[in-house]
């Protein structure tokens, strides 16, 4: 029997299309599709890609294209964005792109929206063709997207075709408290990026629940947390696999976004980082669950009880594909109580 705290809890995957050392982009995309097919068989709920730019280690820049690629290669799992960085795009273009996806794969496409650039400042200005300090109204642009998706927009001068009348659930993504207020006010589902920004998570979830207003989409709050999970048969093996993730996060501090490296003896980590860097990396990963099934189950139980989330999304930065799939299998067994 599964632990009662996990009963009814949905489980999903976030993919950055992470480039592993020695892999081509074609191999990277093939890995994503292979992973999506595997977790679909395991009963995962959704498979999301996140928009990033100008990063050698991340190949999910053309997020909508990857969503179509994976949706076309799977059958039942929901596929979507976690998220599309809306300030980088015209709402009309996103409505058309996701309207096309929703028409091709009805009932399977999600649109998660973030307000961060998903890249460095110079690249963000290049994408937007405008300075970053220009005021941006995130809520207004989400509302415009909702208009484009609505059937009531049929007589407007500007229409999203395809897009109009297509059922595309919109999510608000957040890594601080600002988006929690917005998701609550708009009555939209809320996903928090606890996999790299844990500091304000509990406050954000409390705000979302307290200020939530029912909408046509949701009668009550629906919250999801994204966390890092690296599961293996033993704690020692999981710690070994996690070294790839630690080195990748160290690259954020040192501005070295190289492809994901193969794992190594955890004792070698002390040679890679300063005490300050170690503190920063481990703070960012304070909601990472690394270990065997009992270890992860214990940690996740407390996490779910504290947050009250309805869904856990996992990102697993594991170098070896077979071990990555096995980690997803173990996580599914924790969620369902199956051996």
Automatic annotation (TrEMBL):
<feature type="domain" description="Luciferase-like">
    <location>
        <begin position="15"/>
        <end position="310"/>
    </location>
</feature>
<dbReference type="InterPro" id="IPR019949">
    <property type="entry name" value="CmoO-like"/>
</dbReference>
<dbReference type="InterPro" id="IPR036661">
    <property type="entry name" value="Luciferase-like_sf"/>
</dbReference>
<dbReference type="InterPro" id="IPR011251">
    <property type="entry name" value="Luciferase-like_dom"/>
</dbReference>
<dbReference type="Pfam" id="PF00296">
    <property type="entry name" value="Bac_luciferase"/>
</dbReference>
<dbReference type="GO" id="GO:0016491">
    <property type="term" value="F:oxidoreductase activity"/>
</dbReference>
<comment type="similarity">
    <text>To bacterial alkanal monooxygenase alpha and beta chains.</text>
</comment>
<keyword id="KW-0560">Oxidoreductase</keyword>
<protein>
    <submittedName>
        <fullName>LLM class flavin-dependent oxidoreductase</fullName>
        <ecNumber>1.-.-.-</ecNumber>
    </submittedName>
</protein>
<dbReference type="InterPro" id="IPR050766">
    <property type="entry name" value="Bact_Lucif_Oxidored"/>
</dbReference>
